[in-house]
Amino acid sequence: MTESVNYIIMLTDTVNTIYEVSPLENFLNIPQEKQKKIIDAALICFGTNGYRKSSVSDIATAAGISKALIFHYFGTKKALYLYCLELCGNIAMCEFNEKFDNSVTDFFDRIMLLSDIKIAAMKKHPAMLSFLNSVYFENDDEVKADIQTILTNGQGGDLRTGIAFACTDIAKFKDGIDPKLVMKILIRLTDGYLSKIPVKTRIDLDALHEELVECINLLKNNFYKEQYL
Amino acid sequence: MTESVNYIIMLTDTVNTIYEVSPLENFLNIPQEKQKKIIDAALICFGTNGYRKSSVSDIATAAGISKALIFHYFGTKKALYLYCLELCGNIAMCEFNEKFDNSVTDFFDRIMLLSDIKIAAMKKHPAMLSFLNSVYFENDDEVKADIQTILTNGQGGDLRTGIAFACTDIAKFKDGIDPKLVMKILIRLTDGYLSKIPVKTRIDLDALHEELVECINLLKNNFYKEQYL
DNA sequence: TTCTCTATTGACCGAATCGGTTAATTATAT
DNA sequence: ATATAATTAACCGATTCGGTCAATAGAGAA
Fold this sequence. Notes:
The structure is a homodimer. Chain A is mainly α and about 230 residues long. The first copy, chain A, has twelve helices and no strands. Chain A has helices at about 5-20, 25-30, 30-55, 55-65, 65-75, 75-100, 105-125, 130-135, 140-155, 160-165, 180-195, 200-225.
């Protein structure tokens, strides 16, 4: 649990500079376990219903606390939403910087590495991917501009996944196999695995991971020339 | 356009027996083009926001008509929702009965066939799959019971997709390849292709179809023993 | 025990939106 | 011009919205 402290310290810095001194301090002083429960409730709610259609009452109920307490912690619904966004952005960025190894050139190893990163992030907040995906399509005037600001300032952590596929070793493929097509398959595959229903337990994630390993190995064994296996 | 007349006739029968004489007649008498626009708006809205969080105003705006007109056509929000469900169920069932060929035993051909069916259904109502998927998770008390009734009465058109994978010819696979694993990959693959953002034009669907053909061929060519290619 | 201070909530606010109705307007056809 | 049908703007009471606040519950110090 100590691992997530880093993100919160970073986040406190950022938020305070933007929104002066805020009720957020109240939130940061409660036990991390309670923090997580509230954040996860918000991520699930915002992720499935978008900003507008998510009511603070819904989130409070899902978190098992009163609505008033959420306003005590975050001040406004908008502040809660943007806090979630910054938090997820930071977690994703930290996880990526910490675990991604650019020296891995093998096609499948790279993709597995990226999936591991996503899974690690989802172990912290299972609804994170669903939320971030919904942010991408969020169009409500009340938050649209601020989303842009945060995402561009954050250097767009998710764009890297695109870049991450580059510079891989495609000579290993059998003749007649189009690596781009394989890449498409793998993207669909990993997306499908991870963007499913957000209510996933730790066990589910581990099972998911193993299944993904199996699939990738299957493809690797049949798409690579024999000398590269 | 004449193809969809069948569904509506069937549906009229069903609905009238359940909900006596309803304002639905008004709806069925307007041009099919306008009907489609309203239904598609409802499917998108219900599919992305669920029953509760979808307001009739939202749907009316998306369909480019006034809210009052929707009540003129359907009477209540609930009736509109259930009409959508019955319509989609009928379309899916008809499409399946019409196109599915149980004599096709080849693993990949079967999956391609099922995807073709889904794509054909989505050409009629692009948001259909998204909506039906959301129905599966719908939990609102106002419609929950009626959903169960309709789905069980309709013989569960989507359960067949599970059955449809059975009885296929698995001897064609190379040794060491687990057909169940291949099946998992294909399910993820086709799901990923078809459950993406519902706002898809006809062109997108055709492109999607071609991409899917490519992927399936790639897998087939590398997973089957040579004598079966 | 009593006092204090803080964490938390139930009850409440005005405003907005909800599902649904209706009277009036527009378009159409004779 | 008139009768009829299609469509909507305006409205209804009820609910829910984001947000506030005074009251309560709870933990520690005395």
